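Task 17 of the worksheet. Students: predict the tertiary structure of the chain below and write it out as structure tokens. Keep your answer in the requested format; marks are given for formatting as well as content.
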Amino acid sequence: MNALSSIFFKLSGREQTLLVFSLWTIFLVCLVKLFGSGVDTFREWQLVNGKIDAHDTILDQEAGVNRKLEKKREEQKGVSYDLTLLQNEVDKIMRKFYIFFIYVLIVNPLTVSFFDEIPPLSRYILFLIFSSYVVLGLYLLMLSYCRLLAIQSSVFFLALITLELILSLTIGIPTHEEFRRQQPEPYQGASFFSQEFIDESFFKSKWVFDPQTGVVKPQNFSGEWLNVENNLRRTINKSPDASRTVYLFGGSTVYNSEVPDEFTIASQLSEIIPLDQDLKVLNLGASSVHASQQLARLKNEVNLDPQDIVIFYDGVNNVQLGVVYQNKKGYMYGQPKQENMFIGVLRLLENHSSIIYLIMRSAYDQEVKYPLSLIDSTVDDYVSSLHEANLYTKSKGAKFYHFLQPTIFTKAQLNDYEKNMIHDGLPLIPKTSKKALQETYPLMKERLKELNFSHSLTNSFDHLDVSPYLDFCHVNHIGNKVIAENIWRMIAEDIN
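Model answer:
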């Protein structure tokens, strides 16, 4: 120590300071190194201790684990994975497949077509058939893999059916057919009225559609009150062999399923025409067609001779199809008027389901505003078709006349029956049709004044105390007679 001291003090002050600083640095570095080693040692000890504890835990649980494994082995001894078990599972699946297969054999486009008098099947029917496949398949799958969901679905549909029955007993489904069976005001006193007549008028009229020409016409049928021959509603002619022909075109208000053959507009017009005019009348009315389709039928199916007469009696269908359904092409049998398939199916079902009827009524029995451009284009198309029909008829040496048909909204004074019918709305007078007709007809009448071959019959029923209307445009035998009289009066003035 003395030697160290003597050496230390022989150093200068500066050298002493450097030496002391170096020694302290070395000391601190060693101290840090020592502390680090201690920490590492502690961590290694913890790790080793943890492994020892884990091992002890495993050893402690070994007996329990072994017991569970042994129990599982005992349970598995009673389970057999032989062919019998697999066969049972396959049988369950095959039974459901057989159910599905038998349903498909019974319900398919081929079998259903046997019950359809006018093939091919509409796409609505095809939609329902294939939808039923999907529903049945999903239900069978749920029975296999989601039995609880299948049970819940069954309960839901049972509740739905119960609700349907309750609604059908309370509100029913008011249809045109049911309304007319009650013998409303236009049918009171009608000699032909009977439940059998209503059956025939609603269920016997079928339609043929030519996709090449777009022509819709009635299918031939022989009945007690309604008859269709050569795709024409029968007309009772006083002069069936006359050399000149009156071709009467229009929609369902010309076809006249509301009355027997002798009371159609065509038959009553023929009755009014004097024998010396040498004229017979043919009825070319067809359900839901408008002016452009009438023109197509005139061009493709009528051989006009000089001195023949062509009459278009229409207006309502052009508004219905042009404004309400926004379908310029018009109605084609088996095709929607202008709706997607889902809505079309609902429309088909609403007459058979009170629930769907209420849904559709709330959705469609509303006043809808249409753009003026739509109304203008509908009127333009209508006037254009009439112009073309007139030019075509004149080119054949025949005469063309147009008559704008009346509606319940053009009648000057409504009686209580008519007011109530408008108030009730669906199904006889949809608010959509009411709005469209009230907005379009004034413009249509104004434009038709420019055509010297067009005449308005919109006020033909103003003098009638008893209403002819069975809905907003279809009329009874008395209404048809009034129309026939007005048509002949205007034609006779021109002929004379």
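Marker's comment: Residues 89-170 form one domain. Residues 323 and 374 are 6 Å apart (CA to CA).
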